[in-house]
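debug: dumping io for the single-chain case to check the tokenizer round-trip. Nothing else runs in this session.
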Amino acid sequence: MNLMQGTVNGWQQISPRKLAPMLFLVTLALGEALWIHAHPLVFSGTEPVFWTTLILLSISWIYGYSGRSLALSEMSFYAALWIVTALIGAILTYIFATLNLPLLDAQFTRLDQALGFNWLAFYGFVQQHPLLRAVLTLAYFSGLLQVFFSIIYLSHCARHDRNEELWWSSSIALMLTALLSGLLPAGGTLFFHSVGLENAVHLSHFMALREASLSEFAFGDLKGIVTFPSYHTTIALLLIHAYRQLRLFRWVLALNILMLISTPINGGHYLVDMLGSGVVTVFSIYLTKRVQYFLQR
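debug: decoded output
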């Protein structure tokens, strides 16, 4: 077989469309490694991510190049990308938290009040309705499952463009979210109002990073420490966007509306966190379209 011709599927494995995400992640990882090397911050237990990524990329290349299953090739490729992105993004939020800029909880609370949103009243209402609380909790924690379901579903439907769009927009949004969380830090509504602190699992790491009282973190213990902007809001909006004009759109829309409603309570977020995420989402979609246009050329 002529190596330059290959199969159509095989050629896709070495296209800019596949190389660009990997170069993007490698660049971010190198930047983080350089920063960590120069600062007293250690992240251990990341070896499983490396080996899992290597296995998934191998599966993607084998099944794509042989032409045996383009769907399985796409699933493995994007699963690998999402796993690495989650690790890089989590570490990036920890790095930016060390900036230790003044907390803006009081300002965010005043902005919420100016917008007519009473977080304590909403929190109290949800707590008084156990069934509603259970439904919202399930919706809130469905984000990760939705992402991996989407990888499988969009690959099976041969909507590789949507897989690509969802990953790029989510990755760009995650980098922007990490940066903004460092520049505009907050402890969150649970912290500010001193309620439901048992659910504020992010506080121990968040405060330790700000106070430089803890410098080593295990991969399995990493928390979502971002308050502003809300990445849960971004993921919900991007999932809705990814399923536009697809058969499951109505179901995805309904589930993610529930996720959005649950975010202030389960995520301890201000309304302004969600509004800020809306801006991040729109900007990420715009940048993703520019990236896709560039890669297609």
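debug: round-trip ok. Residues 70-97 form the longest helix (28 residues).
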